């Protein structure tokens, strides 16, 4: 198997395997015309461009015969003007006559001295370089050429999605040797690969065909206390993607002029990503004679979900709820309360009353909230209820006011006095019961809670 290209009146071929110089000539003669005979510098330039690089390089049709470098196809000596030796060559580096360097190799795609010749031992293994004539009559190796100029063609470039391809030449020649194709992408796409390719002499493009990749924007994430929903027609976070942001109840979007972001052809979103911030209720103004305690710091104490508690200074009653919470609608859960001064009440009606004796921590006639009083009864009466009471903030006793009831000895004494005077005709027992009921009714009138 061989690979080939054509220039002027003949085509070039090279073997896929390595062989000695003699084996190479035999292979060329069996499959083609003969080993390559270099005609001019343009031919050298073409071969160096077309042939692939081989580590051992290529055999060509020159050999030393009777100590003269000779073109083997024409059996003519190599003329001085046709010589193309590399610097310092030929040098017959091997001085052993049995292993002398009598054959010629051509450097292809060598870093230095590319296209030049070097004398080499004929038993070395190298790639055969041949030509085939497009003719029946000789001017090259005794043939006369009839020329058919056939340019090699590279594979057609298939339609590339989202790309623009511009090639040199017309529809018949745009993929021919030497012509180039340039590539660009539609808006919203990046070119991956080279911007231009050239068809080489080996009928291959000078590189891989590029492609267009959709541009991507940075990935968006759900904001704290919110979420984002995206539509991605060309792929996640890609060109033409749209993302809509929303917040949980009690929060609102801040930090952006829009709730919808669009990925543009530049690879950037058209606006900054918004965030979610808690809604704020109206600030609570300073309340007279009140103490207000709110959750959070100075920036967040009126934010959604936080609460404020209210209490009053001594001598004032709270009118309204004890606590308010900022709701999702940015309104407090109720009306703001206020503190109302307590109307001082006089308890002088109890002073000097029979039976119940009251001793207080402050003046009995002007009992203020917080005052405490102890109670006991006059001799002959018994205390029923709490011995100690405290006046609360709303000017109410913390328990029911106690009462005094007559003892049995007192009832007997009264009954005896009445019987001795003959004031009534009832029996002693009936009289005693009547007096006891009267005393109970009288004691109930001493209720301090009125």
TrEMBL record:
InterPro entries xrefs: C-type_lectin-like (IPR001304), C-type_lectin-like/link_sf (IPR016186), C-type_lectin_CS (IPR018378), Compl-Cell_Adhes-Reg (IPR050350), CTDL_fold (IPR016187), Selectin_CTLD (IPR033991), Selectin_superfamily (IPR002396), Sushi/SCR/CCP_sf (IPR035976)
Keyword Transferase in annotation: no
Segments forming domain Sushi: 152-214, 215-278, 279-341, 347-406
GO cellular component: plasma membrane
Membrane-spanning intervals of the chain: 413-436
Disulfide links within the chain: 185-212, 312-339, 377-404
Domain C-type lectin: 7-131
Membrane association type: Single-pass type I membrane protein
Pfam assignment, any one: Sushi
Gene Ontology MF terms in the entry: metal ion binding
SMART domains: CCP, CLECT
Keywords on record: Calcium, Cell adhesion, Cell membrane, Disulfide bond, EGF-like domain, Glycoprotein, Membrane, Metal-binding, Repeat, Signal, Sushi, Transmembrane, Transmembrane helix
Example of a GO biological process term: cell adhesion
Superkingdom of the organism of origin: Eukaryota
Location within or outside the cell: Cell membrane; Membrane
Record's protein name: Uncharacterized protein
Species whose genome carries this gene: Periophthalmus magnuspinnatus
